[in-house]
């Protein structure tokens, strides 16, 4: 099965819904709001004047929010619909960013540019079959001293949601709609892979990166899973056996 064709079709369809959703709040973004969350804002600090590569940028809200903070942004996504919408948003706002429609691995095979930061966030890694190859793309895209900021959903929540924790070469095939409130009930087939925390950390170490920080969070800044409750503004928690389950982790890793 051609996983890239299948997942591209699903993300093209999701993107059409997402741009009109309250979840992504494009009008708020056009009015000047940032789509970035405090987790990545705090971990990345002052980004003004930095060259930033955003992998799996969806329709560019975060990429353009970094551009609004002064970053020189290049952003990559598999979905041609997402890239088209991102370019439209750039034009509407007058913000500058280069958007590239590509698979992450194919981008890594040809990219010659190096960056101060690579940013990857929330719901990215499950679409990639090979985490070792992903980490090599990151390492090759960084300048010496450059850093990765990964803010990702915690794989323990996959387990709680009925998926396996450990990686299997065989993909999980799901028929799903989407996570925004305007889901139209139409389902698309999608292929995903689980990546436990140890695989991600080890892949980055083996790619030659220095892990500077690994955080785990008991909340998600997105209300995108079933049965979450909002304990404070923008902090959604999942209670499992009376305890909050880990929902997000973040890694900052640097190139020597
Ligand atoms: C959950 S979204 C990213 C979330 C992002 N933080 C956001 O909400 O703006 C996942 C993105 O990964 C992209 N994607 C999936 N597989 C990919 C691949 N192999 N290469 C590049 N992008 C991919 C999808 O098109 C989608 O836009």
Description:
With 256 residues, the chain is α/β, with parallel strands linked by helices. The protein is built from nine helices and 13 strands. It has a single domain, classed as Rossmann fold (3-Layer(aba) Sandwich). The strands form four sheets. A seven-stranded mixed sheet has the order 3-2-1-4-5-13-8, sandwiched between helices. The radius of gyration is 17 Å and the shape is globular. The mean pLDDT is 97. Bound molecules: S-adenosylmethionine. The site of S-adenosylmethionine (SAM) has 19 residues, from helix 1 and helix 4.
What order do the helices and strands come in, and which of them pair?
Elements: H1 3-18, H2 26-30, H3 38-44, E1 51-55, H4 61-68, E2 72-77, H5 80-93, E3 97-101, H6 104-110, E4 115-121, H7 131-141, E5 142-153, H8 155-160, E6 172-176, E7 188-192, H9 197-206, E8 209-217, E9 229-232, E10 235-237, E11 239-240, E12 243-244, E13 248-255
Parallel strand pairs: 1-2, 1-4, 2-3, 4-5
Antiparallel strand pairs: 5-13, 6-7, 8-13, 9-10, 11-12
The protein binds S-adenosylmethionine.
The site of S-adenosylmethionine has 19 residues, from helix 1 and helix 4.
